[in-house]
Amino acid sequence: MALVAGVDSSTQSCKIVVRDAETGALVRSGSAKHPDGTSVDPRFWWDAFLEAAQKAGGLADVAALAVGGQQHGMVALDAQGNVVRDALLWNDTRSAQAAEDLIVELGEGDRAAGAQAWADAVGSVLVASLTITKLRWLRDAEPENAARVAAVALPHDWLSWRIAGYGPEGDPTAPLGPQLDKLFTDASDASGTGYYDAQATSGDGYRRDLLALAFGRDDVVLPRVIGSTESGAVAHATIAGDGAALIGPGAGDNAGAAIGLGMQPGDIAISIGTSGVVSAVAPRRTQDGTGAINGFADCTGNALMLAVTLNAAQVLDAARSVLDADFGKLADLALAAPAGSDGLVLVPYLQGERTPNRPNASGTLHGIRLKNMTQAHVARAYIEGMLCGLADGMDALRALDVPVERVMLIGGAAQSPAVQEIAPQIFGLPISIPEPGEYVADGAARQAAWVLASATLGAEAPQPAWATKMSKTLPANPVPVVREQYAAVRDLV
Ligand SMILES: Nc1ncnc2c1ncn2[C@@H]1O[C@H](COP(=O)(O)OP(=O)(O)O)[C@@H](O)[C@H]1O
Ligand SMILES: O=C(CO)[C@@H](O)[C@H](O)COP(=O)(O)O
Question: Which intervals hold domain Carbohydrate kinase FGGY N-terminal (predicted)?
Fold first, then answer.
């Protein structure tokens, strides 16, 4: 029985699954925490990977592995393979002004034209999350660090490179040293940088002209973008398979989830992790000049369209903190209040917001009355407000004629019974809950199995036919007043 491993190096933790390459059966798993914060030394990701691998029983026996990861994080490396500063993550908003400046610059002073020009060029209007804005910020705020940059990678690229044995000069866990030209990535994650066009018909897809516009130079190594079933390297013998385990291209975490769920056009995934994501696969990417929808790539050659919020599971973590509640108590409280929380409405911009683009906004609790100042109403308002932000994202997808046939709810907070019960009220649609699982890590494992099959059968090897089972489907239960109340106050920030 050949085994494969899938890794999800996400915002809050590293999760690893080991699965049977043929059947997809789960064999072992492990996870380890990442530090809090929006600016993180990547060495913590490496340490968490090693801990999660050890908890998963080690990876010595896997024949292939692949890494999915939080998107967009700027991992800037010097010529010796050291990170020049802590990585700026997707939810770090310090580059919001840089994003605005780049939009106006590409539009030669016309913001609307600039927004559309970015959407046409790379699929997305720039916001602080995208890597290219972080490079502009680095150029202006930390010119000494900017001058040292020899390569720019993303979290999943960097981790794949480290697993292959590369890394900082003199680091005993990086026996192959700082070979920057060995960095590799995939189209799904590259498409979230802001300097890669997944639909380019010539060249390697990188828009070095846009990189130069942002960073002032383009003489940096960018990871080689490899195909969906190619292997970019083998894992170092200290990690896996006596130095013979193939490392797949990996993926941005949302593309990883898409392949993990086996998404087809018509499927929508709502992920409630650190980020809130509403995503859909399609044959071609959108070019949404409003900026509501990012037109990224998936990791099978299709497009992946996403609406992404900064305020998702951590809004519920904040509610638990305010209410001194564990997950169970928060859900019980929320379900004890009526739909609409008797007019109490949370606009959940606790970390600013990305969709809509309000990096400096803060959250607001509206409609406070004696009647609704109970723990139950507050708990429900937090969940409803968070879900209303995502429902707006779903509307933005629909506005682009994206078909909505099946909606699946995943991510850490999807486990909450209150989220599961309230979501069909707010989305007004049936919602399927897949069996509990780590769908990004599962997608990476499925990709690894595909890479393994392709190594023997060639490029025609089909994607492994692993089944994705739903544990239940909750019927649509629309309660329009919840979104109406939200829409009435959403812009009062
Ligand atoms: N039962 C639950 N109810 C509400 N939130 C939960 C529950 N279980 C986990 N979470 C939250 O889910 C988040 C982690 O989800 P995850 O999808 O792993 O995030 P990420 O991939 O961004 O690291 C945490 O904020 C955690 O508090
Ligand atoms: O920025 C995005 C997608 O554009 C986020 O979805 C990140 O990829 C983080 O994902 P999680 O850690 O929340 O899963």
Answer: 4-260
Query: 270-302, pLDDT tens digit by residue?
Result: 999 999 999 999 988 889 999 999 999 999 999
Q: Is the CB of 314 under 6 A from ligand 2?
A: no
Which residues neighbour 241 within 8 Å (Cβ) at sequence distance 6 or greater? Answer: 59, 60, 61, 62, 63, 234, 235
Last residue of one domain, picked from the residues 237, 261, 285: 261
5-23, pLDDT tens digit by residue?
A: 999 999 999 999 999 999 9
Would you say residue 447 lies in a domain? no
Cβ partners under 8 Å of residue 471, min gap 6: 433, 434, 435, 436
Residue 310 has pLDDT above 90, yes or no: yes
- Alpha-carbon distance of 157 to 448, in angstroms, equals 15
Tell me, yes or no, whether 227 lies in a domain. Answer: yes
Q: Which atom of ligand 2 is nearest to the CA of 253?
A: 8
Nearest residue CA, atom 4 of ligand 1? 413
Q: Helical H runs in 262-370?
A: 313-323, 327-336
- The residue contributing the CA closest to ligand 1 atom 18 is 412
How many of the other CB atoms lie within 10 Å of CB of 488?
Answer: 12
Counting the structural domains of the chain, the total is 2
Same domain for 285 and 407, yes or no, is yes
pLDDT tens string 34-43: 999 999 999 9
Mean pLDDT value of segment 467-489: 96
Distance CA(74)–CA(255), nearest Å, equals 19
- Which residues does residue 177 pair with via DSSP β-bridges, in sequence order? 166
pLDDT tens digits along 80-106: 999 999 999 999 999 999 999 999 999
The mean pLDDT value for 329-351 works out to 98
Residue 417 reports pLDDT greater than 90: yes
Q: How far apart are CA 215 and CA 147, in angstroms?
A: 10
- 441 lies in some domain: no
Task: Given the residues 253, 267, 288, 298, select the one marked as catalytic.
Answer: 253
Token pair for residue 235? 């894992």
The answer to the question of whether 447 is labelled as a binding residue is no
Together in a domain, 167 and 245: yes
Does residue 491 carry a catalytic annotation? no
Q: Looking at residue 291, which CATH number applies to its domain?
A: 3.30.420.40
Name the residue of 188, 191, 253, 293 whose CB sits within 8 Å of the most ligand 2 atoms, as the mutation to test its pocket.
253
Q: Which of 198-202, 360-364, 448-452 has the lowest mean pLDDT?
A: 198-202
Tell the residue number behind the tokens 């990701």, with chain if given.
Answer: 45
The reply, when asked if residue 71 is annotated as ligand binding, is yes
The dihedral of CA 84, 86, 89, 94: what is its sign?
Answer: negative
Does the pLDDT at position 243 exceed 90?
no
Identify the domain containing residue 301 by its residue range: 262-430+475-493
